[in-house]
Amino acid sequence: MSPSINVENLRMSRSLKPGLHTLRKSHRDDRGQATFEFMLMLPLFILLVLFAVDMAIIGYEYVTVSNAVREGARYASVNCGTGDCTSANEVKQRAADASNGGLDLSDISVGWPNGTERGDAVVVSAEHSHSLLFFPVSFPVVSCTVMRLEADNGTSSLPATPTEC
Length: 165
Known about the structure:
48% of the residues lie in helices and 16% in strands. It is of the alpha+beta class. The protein has a domain at 40-148. Strands 1-2-3 form a 3-stranded antiparallel sheet, covered by helices on one side.
């Protein structure tokens, strides 16, 4: 006895096979598309990450320079109100030390525009150029602080703090 073959099942299985074969073939053609798209986007993503790192470093440097200038102005404000501040080297050195090596003495300027009496202003400023690590661009990092001299010499009235740097 021979097994009976259902003609209807045979027709159905033959009609499905070409469709499955075509589906598999088109799936095989799309396999490299994701890799190609990834390779197109990878350089842009790397550039974006490197740019973000450079901007973070500039932000850190700006905060460091601002804090160093503020430290120098505070030192001059507290220690130079007796009228004996004729040299700015001590104030510059204090600001350079506060920058943890980020500023040279030549980057820092110190001045007493109204004199060196109690209540007069001391102006400490710094200008430093920062080159990006990954891109050929340079940015100036500038900060300026104005404070009043605070030495106690017996007077009680203090002039207003200058607003210009």
